[in-house]
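Justification of computing resources. Each target in the renewal requires a structure prediction run like the one illustrated here; the chain below, 636 residues long, is used simply to show the kind of job we budget for.
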Amino acid sequence: MGELSVSSIGSEEQRKVFLKHLLNDVEAMEYMLANNHFESGIARIGFEQEFCLVDNHYRPSLQAPEILSRISDPHFTTELARYNLEINMDPLVLEDDCFSRTENDLRGFLNKANDIALQHNNHVVLTGILPSISKREVGLEYMTPNPRYFVLGDVIKAIRGSDFELNIIGVDELILSHSNILFEACNTSFQIHLQVDPSEFADMYNWAQMITGPVLSVCTNSPLLFGRQLWSETRIALFQQSIDMRSKGKSLREKQQRVSFGKRWINDITEIYKDDISRYTLLMTKEVERDSLEVLKDGGVPRLEALNLHNGTIWKWNRPCYGVGGGKPHLRIENRYIPSGPTVLDEVANAALWIGLMKSMPDHLKGNWNKYQFEESKENFYKAATLGIHSGITWDGKVVPANELAINEMIPMAREGLKKMNVNEANIDRYMSIIEGRARMRMTGSRWMIKSFRQLKKTMSRDEAQVALAYLLHKRRKDKKPVHEWPLPDREELANLAIDYKWVASIMSTDLITVKENDPVELVKKIMEWDNIRHVPVEDEKGKLLGLITYKHLEKHYASNNGSGEISVAREIMNPNLLKIDPHTDVRHAMLLMIDKAISCLPVVEEDELVGIVTDKDLRDVWEKMNKKDESEIGG
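Resulting structure tokens:
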């Protein structure tokens, strides 16, 4: 999430000073571009690996800060949530065996993290969105205790003026509001950096935009959020909505999201920065050590601190980056849309595909972007995000199945681009064969997860299937096979999985059928018969829980009605004196409540809103599973 030594916008004077530095940074960049100050003639690659930490029950951990302190390696850093960490890898020259070196180095870093994590009964999982995340794990107790994250959350919330909202529709639908930015922490990515010559930057950046759809379609790995089957790469929608600062309005005024694809082709890099300064308000400031123009005047290389900070609060899927290495300034394009996982091998193959394609840009495109529709590339990106390998990509005026486009166009182009950079044949064959295997089998990480999740749900609850999937992602990663070679799960390999039934939220029913207070009792009776349910919550017109009706209430009503012609309504027979619990109630406590009060159902309420129901049957089923788990542990 960027630089840590920052603060929210303070006084008007602080804002003016920082904005002056920001403008001077742009001027300094223009001067350096015009006078050939930038490093050129060499291509370096770099990577940022985000990963998840889960506890011994494969639910999100709280121990990332403690594990990070014990890893004690400057390559590792925090992320927004206490269940995520990030590895910043050293850059490599794009040549020879750079990809196999990346793979080996990355395995070493992850093994180091996993060894320390195991000492805390934690495990490392590579995935775009951890399947076992629940709404509980987006509470503030799971935010990493770092001032930058709290500053960022407070500023974004203040600008937005209301809770954050999610509305994502796929196979399932997810509609939620939330009070902080931790929805964004559900995302983990594998970010790829490519150093680009300044003279080629505009063409290379536009080409990066053009290939987003084809690349993403074969790399998706984030199909689930809170147990809902959404987009093939749900991270795209989740990131855009989770920190969206725009509030709803009645006008058609266009307001650009800070997480965006962009709106048009560019002509030079400063055009991006100027547009961002014009469109996006400052979120944070910092004390700038030296003004960039003064540094240039003294013959130094400026760090462009203000520009980099502002750029770090605008999350483009292809982001321009300025850096200084070895005393020389350089430019990079950062690919931010590739998800983490599901294996190191898959990630490095994704990187080789993108970098190979970047280095094989057709000559006829250079300087001729006005002949091509930007909107077509943007459309391809969102089609790939929603449908993945099953999407149809518009390419050369034709709509082509994504897997066929990968096999017939993208992989051959990537091979040529890698050859041009003198990447060795063994590296090229190893990683391109993985992309080709995925495309031929139509088996990305997303497809494997969806197929596995649906299979698991045949014998498991949704929550159990989510945990099982996190366990399988960890187990399969250690086998070192690419995802298209993974078998679907079987019951035997889940025999040692110990699911922790701790909170009511993990066992409650959320697919609820309710009635209104003025609905006829006859309708209530029919609904209970049709849907074979024993409990029906009663709500008012605004959705507030008023009471509960059970079969006993119906029997009592019809026994006392004596065939009168009066039409009774739900309000008249419901029990209004309800014992309610919240989603974070301990399962054992809920069991004791039901026994003590001799009731068969507990409504689950959060902020006066009905969010679920737990019945005596739910608790009996869980009790049996908990006892079986205890017996197996004793027997073992």
